[in-house]
Design the sequence.
């Protein structure tokens, strides 16, 4: 009688192991070959860290990393502000004229192919360049605007789902006690949705850092992001420096994810404790 549950349990562990192997084995191989001494990434010839030193001496790659980090930070910050405002409007303002159109415009980048988004933004910047000197040359500014455009949609979805779970009675009680709406927002609502805002910022930063298609449409010769540099170099053959760069990015993302998880878990425990004390 106990053989069936044990058999099912083994199948679950086998499926879980197969899934993790499929997802993380290529990443593990990439990390291992970043320490390969050979220039051929598929031939192991010994342990070496020389590609990490050559990576930091590559001005083109380092310039792409710097530009992508700056654009990612600025795009995520702007997307968090706009996405939080949009989520607040959709969840707290009730029914208003044009609500359906507004919601569709916010969520359209989620389902729109990146090629269409990039092409439409390119045509927009060309038209704006004929009217404004600022957009006559495509570069960092146009990439930033394009990334904010589609990152805002993801932040809106994340923050909106969190706002739907917020207990409105606490906010109403604070306003009944005389607190103005802005004070209720900054002292009650904002700390409650802070984990979702942080998650939205990290998601927007990752999407901006990873974007290749849209950036290829809206960038110019003066601005080349990291994905564009990597893609152009991989077309001529994978360099061990790319493996070293990918390893450093994986390490940075893993550390940032762990810190974000720890902060959000701590904030969630504090929120649950405050809810119990309020009850």
Sequence:
């Amino acid at each position: 009688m106990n053989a069936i549950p044990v058999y099912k349990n083994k199948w679950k562990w086998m499926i879980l192991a197969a899934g993790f192997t499929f997802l993380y084995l290529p990443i593990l191989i990439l990390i291992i070959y970043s320490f390969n001494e050979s220039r051929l990434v598929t031939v192991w010839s010994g342990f070496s860290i020389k590609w990490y030193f050559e990576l930091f001496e590559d001005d083109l790659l380092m310039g792409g990393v710097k530009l992508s980090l700056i654009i990612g930070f600025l795009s995520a910050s702007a997307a968090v502000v706009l996405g939080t405002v949009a989520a607040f409007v959709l969840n707290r303002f009730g029914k208003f004229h044009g609500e359906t159109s507004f919601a569709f415009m916010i969520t359209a980048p989620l389902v729109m192919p990146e090629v269409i988004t990039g092409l439409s933004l390119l045509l927009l910047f060309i038209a704006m360049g004929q009217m404004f000197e600022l957009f006559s040359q495509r570069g960092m500014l146009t990439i930033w605007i394009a990334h904010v455009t589609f990152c805002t949609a993801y932040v809106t979805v994340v923050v909106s789902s969190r706002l739907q779970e917020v207990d409105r009675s606490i906010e109403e009680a604070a306003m009944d006690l005389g607190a103005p709406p802005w004070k209720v927002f900054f002292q009650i609502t904002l700390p409650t949705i802070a984990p979702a805002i942080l998650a939205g910022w990290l998601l927007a930063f990752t999407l901006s850092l990873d974007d290749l298609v849209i950036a290829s449409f809206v960038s110019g010769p003066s601005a080349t992001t990291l994905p564009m540099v990597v893609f152009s170099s991989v077309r001529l053959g994978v360099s061990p420096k790319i493996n070293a760069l990918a390893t450093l990015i994986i390490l940075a993302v893993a550390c940032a994810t762990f810190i974000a998880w720890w902060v959000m878990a701590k904030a969630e425990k504090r929120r649950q404790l405050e809810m119990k004390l309020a009850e």
